[in-house]
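Intended use. Records like the one below are meant for learning the mapping from a protein sequence to its folded structure. Do not use them to infer anything beyond what is encoded.
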Amino acid sequence: MDQPPTDSERALPPGWALVRVDQAGEVRLGRQRSPEQDSGAHMTKYVRAANITPAGMNLTDLLEMNFTPAEREVFGLKVGDVLLTEASGSASQVGRSAIWRGEFDLCCFQNTVIRFRPHLTTSEYALVVFRHYAAAGVFAGAARGVGIQHLGGSRLAELPYPLPPLAEQTRITEIADIRLAEIREAEARLRSALHHLNEQVREIMATAVAGELAPRSPQTPEPDRARGSSRSGQINLFEETLNLDVPGLGATVPEGWLRRRVDHVGEVRLGRQRAPKHERGRNMRPYLRVANVYEDRIDTSDILRMNFEPEEVAIYELQDGDVLLNEGQSPELVGRPAIYRGEVPGACFQNTLIRFRAGDGIEPEYALLVFRHYMHSGVFREIARWSTNIAHLGLERFRALPFPIPPRDEQQRIVAEARRRLDAIAGQTRAVQASLARLPEFELELLAAAVAGELTPQDPHDEPSSELLQRLGPPRKTQATLSSLRGDTMPKRRPRPTRQAEPTPDLAAVLKENGGSLPLPELFAQAGYNRDLPEHVELFYLALRNALGGTIRLTGDAAENAELEVADAA
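Structure written out for the chain above:
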């Protein structure tokens, strides 16, 4: 007696079938990378997870390792193969997919990639299904792991696969491609609009500090109209200073303006260094750091505290109108400034920030415009010194920068006009960003409709998927026993020892047995774990988390193929 249809099958359109992914096509995990394959007689390009992007395949940095002729038979790519990322630190990025179009005659794939070779389905329709699963969180729900999420070949193989008739698959993908192209075009237009709005912001600030934004004052100011306050501790504020020329800065200022060093128009100070001894004490106070200072905005969602003695409070406590700048940041954002407006009462600041306290005759809001201009025009980037990927503005370099000074009343007009224009642009920017944020929802709705049979009507003349399944049968399995394949003429290597017993949580011992260091995937295997067993993946990453910072340490990139070594190996 036939079994009644399941809920999933009842929801399928006429002529469709619900199969497993490994019925719709062959599923295979790539070949593991190991040091012994870094050289050999059959060096071959291979695809890894980093080559699979949301926009398709990025083959600008394909790596090579040795694949014997037999291994090429198993792990070689063919036109139409669908490649998926097997793992990611972000669950939302697991299962990112793209189609191999035969860009290279000979190419294989690594075990950070899963290959789906279509059998009952077209490559393009399979890509639609997998993109839907990624966007809808199906892959994220199936993935396992602590820290790095693994989809796993066996878990992908077991997922349900909605299978339309072949002819309908083609109709679905044709319509989906058109709609997706429309979404991409909308995204491109919105990003172009965002770029133009950002350009307008930069132009407003450039014209503000060049005296071209607001009506000019009719007379030249007297020197004391821009004199620093006594609290700045500066003297001789209007002596000419030398060596103020910086690439990107004009050598002159408008008539009636002054041009002085930053530290001659206000007090400049670096914040207090964070140290373990300050983590507790009698005078715990909130403090601001780089993570709190965005452009023209103080973020108070994550405020930390440390101890400041009373004499330190007198130095480091913030006042309304203080301008805070990121001392260390990415090159594009170094010097990112915002005004403190009392958002966190009694707050001090850390040495990842520089404080500019405007002197008499300088409007803090005008100073903010100058510093925003310096960030956007590249002045801060030009004077910064780089350490790895962090650019440091430097207190002394910042102090020596030139500062254009209009008369006080002109500063106020500049600030008012700049604020009016910037507020208008901010409203437009929010609208564009809101539209951009809705595009992923549109794409998810489109993909969901595609795999539910809602993009195109069913044709009763199409061969039903059940008949297709009966006619073609299961997909052909690629021979997995490499030594049984003809053409493998490579001399036999002595295999690396692999643990076959229960996995061990003593990862340091495994590293010591293998020379002190291993790539993360190889450590996983050498410690006896099976990536297709969810409990093994979870146990491995639990052992890794417990050992990191103690008996073992990370020496490479924390992403794909991270290298781990015994902590006392150096």
